[in-house]
């Protein structure tokens, strides 16, 4: 920990990650994918703050090397926000809330951060640090750099860097246009699978930390052996209408064999504006946001949970039986999901298998 940087009490860190994107001449010098590069940058940011305990992070739009804002910076901020959220190591400040605070105080949520503006942001937002940088677009790969600045001293105390593949502008929900990977998304056909994982060839580290994959009865499960609550998630671009399902095990967390009836494992989906839809389903209960817990007859072995979204209508099922439905028009297109894996004792964690998501 940097002396004098982090206060005695839990506080907020603003990561105003303004990327330095320099296109290098060799395509193979870029990260394997845009997502891999963002994940690499995220890991470095989390590692640089590891000594500070649990902190909150806010990501503002990036600027290019000439100091201008663009849709590139907006996309990078959105992607990094989602990636940091999925680590569950930091509390990520919602971008809409950050933008509102900056506007109310007549501050720019983008731009180069100098010692004076870093201290000013620290006072207004009650934060301890800001990460800043620039980006430039030149050729066939994208270099991204970021530096974390103390709002107390105005000095740099940490840095992160990664290399991304080339990107291009295309129409999207950001308004007029936004940056996408060169492998731009096509329209999905009804019934087409856009995400799946049976964990037979998966690296558990793709899903989170303190996780592992076990095989039982011919099925591969994602779980954890480490006591505590762990989070597993992926960054996935969901279409407007979809089905999303996975298998989960009835959770017995005590040596005596008695079941913990309180376990209703959250499934959280995050949309492009940082809003999180939280759904619960587990031992003796499930619910959609704002609704009462509803009991259902689950299997004491392996169950199959299913979420169906059609327009603003959401329905949840277990083993083919409808549990609850509701309308939630406030959510946009989801960009990621995560589940909670509770572990009460070593080697006895909740298990999940066979994730499948299809367009409707």
Report the sheet with the most strands, covering strand number, pairing sense and barrel closure. Answer: 6 strands, antiparallel
Q: Spans of 5+ residues with little confidence (pLDDT < 50)?
A: 1-12, 17-31, 169-185, 254-262
Give the overall pLDDT as a whole number: 74
- The SSE order reads EHEHEHHEEEEEEEEEEEEEEEEEE
Give the CA-CA distance, first to last residue.
Answer: 49 Å
CATH-assigned homologous superfamily of the largest domain: ABC-type transport auxiliary lipoprotein component
Class per helix and strand makeup: alpha+beta
Strand content is 35-45%
Radius of gyration over C-alpha positions, nearest whole angstrom? 21 Å
Structural commentary:
- There is one protein chain.
- With about 350 residues, this protein is an alpha+beta fold.
- The protein has two domains: about 10-180, ABC-type transport auxiliary lipoprotein component (Rossmann fold, 3-Layer(aba) Sandwich); about 195-360, Exo-inulinase, domain 1 (Jelly Rolls).
- Helix content is about 15%, strand content about 35%.
- It has helices at about 35-50, 70-85, 95-105, 115-125, and strands spanning about 10-15, 55-60, 90, 130, 140-150, 155-165, 165-170, 180, 195, 210-215, 220-225, 230-235, 240-250, 265-270, 275-280, 285, 300-310, 315-320, 320-325, 335-345, 350-360.
- A six-stranded antiparallel beta sheet has the order 9-21-13-17-18-19, with no helix packed on it. A five-stranded antiparallel beta sheet has the order 12-20-14-15-16, covered by helices on one side.
- A hairpin with a 2-residue loop joins strand 18 (about 315-320) and strand 19 (about 320-325).
- Helix 1 crosses helix 2.
- The longest helix has 17 residues, at about 70-85.
- It is globular and about 60 Å long.
- The N and C termini lie far apart (about 50 Å).
- Residues about 1-10, about 15-30, about 170-185 and about 255-260 have low confidence and may be disordered.
């Amino acid at each position: 920990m940097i002396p004098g940087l982090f206060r005695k009490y839990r506080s907020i860190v603003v990561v105003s990650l303004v990327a330095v994107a320099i296109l290098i001449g060799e395509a193979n010098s870029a990260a394997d994918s845009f997502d891999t590069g963002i994940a690499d940058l995220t890991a470095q940011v989390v590692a640089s703050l590891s000594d500070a305990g649990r902190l909150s992070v806010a990501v503002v739009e990036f600027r290019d090397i000439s100091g201008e804002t663009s849709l590139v910076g907006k996309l990078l901020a959105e992607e990094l926000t989602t990636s940091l959220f999925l680590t569950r190591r930091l509390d990520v400040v919602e971008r809409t809330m950050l933008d509102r605070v900056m506007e109310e105080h007549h501050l720019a949520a983008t731009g180069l951060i100098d010692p004076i503006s870093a201290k000013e942001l620290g006072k207004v937002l009650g934060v301890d640090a800001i990460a800043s940088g620039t980006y430039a677009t030149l050729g066939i790969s994208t270099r991204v750099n970021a530096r974390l600045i103390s709002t107390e001293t105005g000095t740099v105390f940490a840095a992160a860097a990664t290399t991304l593949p080339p990107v291009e502008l295309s129409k999207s929900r950001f308004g007029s246009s936004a940056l996408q990977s060169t492998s731009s998304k096509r329209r999905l056909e009804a019934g087409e699978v856009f995400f799946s994982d049976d964990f037979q060839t998966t690296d558990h580290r793709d899903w989170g930390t303190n996780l592992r994959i076990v095989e039982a009865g011919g099925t591969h499960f994602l779980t954890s052996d480490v006591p505590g609550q762990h989070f597993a998630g992926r960054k996935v671009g969901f279409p407007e209408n979809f089905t999303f399902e996975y298998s989960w095990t009835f959770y017995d967390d005590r040596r005596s064999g008695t079941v913990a009836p309180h376990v209703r494992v959250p499934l959280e989906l995050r949309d492009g504006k940082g809003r999180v839809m939280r759904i619960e389903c587990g031992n003796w209960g499930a619910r959609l946001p704002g609704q009462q817990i509803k009991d259902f007859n689950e299997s004491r072995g392996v169950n199959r949970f299913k979420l169906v979204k059609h327009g603003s209508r959401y329905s949840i099922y277990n083993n083919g039986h409808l549990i609850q439905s509701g309308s939630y028009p406030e959510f946009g297109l989801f960009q990621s999901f995560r589940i909670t894996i509770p572990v009460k004792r070593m080697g006895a964690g909740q298990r999940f298998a066979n994730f499948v998501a299809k367009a409707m």
